[in-house]
Q: What sequence folds into this?
């Protein structure tokens, strides 16, 4: 009996789960989790930082600032992943290691998780965090005119949503306050996740899919973007990145599409831990930092 596909050519949830279940593509997922915990503890111990700075009214709306050694430093704001329903900023302090060595102040954003809140509220919170950084980072040694934004997995989705934000109309900021963006293994079309094992927690519906899928609402934006993912990730992660790159360019925007050969979903952000990595090189060049 013929059955209509759930999404594109996928007819069964198991097929979608196989593409978006990130841990099954990784040889030792628990070791990866330990890596982030241990390297992040090292970052908090070795770098000068101010933790749990509130940017909004709820207890979850906090950010961690890792200060550059010099004043008026360029700023890197990072939004963590976890499919909107796992992790905190503390597991990703490690992303400050590479940028700090390049002279950046790094801000790692925390936010509420599904199903306590929905993706719409998480998007609002991350936009509020970016607005807070633009308005307040000068008080913490950062340059508000040199802010880069980055995110991984669900954080890549949230980074893209921040790039779509009408900052001038809704926040009273410059139209494009972000100078550069790095999107790693992001989700730009939420539709397939509606038919995945994630649905009971993230609770997508038609409105959320259409309004909060960055692929469907790209605006003209002056921010150059690096769109990247691990070469060892599933075909769907590659397709998601390529589709967003195409849509970003079709709107007249600038982006580079670069797969990371051999990297899996978690190791695709290991580069932020090393100042000489491709990720840190691109970030430094895009921000015009002479290091």
A:
């Amino acid at each position: 009996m013929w059955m209509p596909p759930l999404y594109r050519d996928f007819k069964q949830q198991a097929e979608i789960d196989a593409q978006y279940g990130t841990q099954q593509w990784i040889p030792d997922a628990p070791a990866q989790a330990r890596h982030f915990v241990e390297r992040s503890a090292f970052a908090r111990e070795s770098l000068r930082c101010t933790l749990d700075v509130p940017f909004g009214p709820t207890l979850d709306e906090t950010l961690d600032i890792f200060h550059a050694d010099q004043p008026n430093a360029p700023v890197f704001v990072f939004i963590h992943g976890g499919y909107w329903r796992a992790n905190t900023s503390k597991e990703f302090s490690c992303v400050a290691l590479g940028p700090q060595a390049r002279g950046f102040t790094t801000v790692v954003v925390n936010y509420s998780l599904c199903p306590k809140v929905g993706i719409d509220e998480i998007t609002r919170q991350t936009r509020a965090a970016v607005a807070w950084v633009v308005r307040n980072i000068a008080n913490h040694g950062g340059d508000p005119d040199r802010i880069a934004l980055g995110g991984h997995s669900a954080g890549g989705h949230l980074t893209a949503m921040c790039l779509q934000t009408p900052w001038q109309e809704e926040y009273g900021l410059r139209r494009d306050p972000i100078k550069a963006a790095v999107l790693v293994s992001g989700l730009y079309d939420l539709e397939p996740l509606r038919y995945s094992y994630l649905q009971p927690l993230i609770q997508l519906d038609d409105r959320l899919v259409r309004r909060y899928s960055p692929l469907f609402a790209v605006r003209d934006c002056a921010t150059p973007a690096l769109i990247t993912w691990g070469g060892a990730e599933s075909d769907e992660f590659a397709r998601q990145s390529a589709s967003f790159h195409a849509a970003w360019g079709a709107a007249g925007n600038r982006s580079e599409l670069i797969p990371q050969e051999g990297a899996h979903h978690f190791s695709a952000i290991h580069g932020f831990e090393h100042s000489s990595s491709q990720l840190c090189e691109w970030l430094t060049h895009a921000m015009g930092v002479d290091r």
About this structure: The beta strands are 49-54, 62-66, 73-79, 105-109, 142-152, 180-184, 225-230, 255-260.
